Amino acid sequence: MTTNLLKHSADNLSKLNYSVLIEEKEGGFQVTVWGLPEFQVFAKTREDALKNLHELVNSRLQNVEIVTQEIEAPKSEHPWMKFAGKYKDDPQFDDMLADIEAYRR
């Protein structure tokens, strides 16, 4: 397996879109970035919860670098290729093909 670091300009990575799960709980709202449970806040109003989450995400990403990597899966041989040409030197192979053809008619 190989990986390649993809070069992107800062403009391409300057904005992130993330899905947010908003749950109404007793006494307020719990807001979580979908798939990132460490990005979670609780506030009395929906707007405050979203604002607090935005601030949390911004503060966490303040001193980090975001890179994109391309991962290439290893190329595997087709499972039937090991049988290709197995009977090329068999003197009965042509007779067998003829029998198969006759059977199919």
From TrEMBL:
SUPFAM superfamilies, per database record: TTHA1013/TTHA0281-like
Cross-referenced InterPro entries: TTHA1013/TTHA0281-like (IPR035069)
Domain of life: Bacteria
Protein name: HicB family protein
Organism of origin: Fischerella muscicola CCMEE 5323
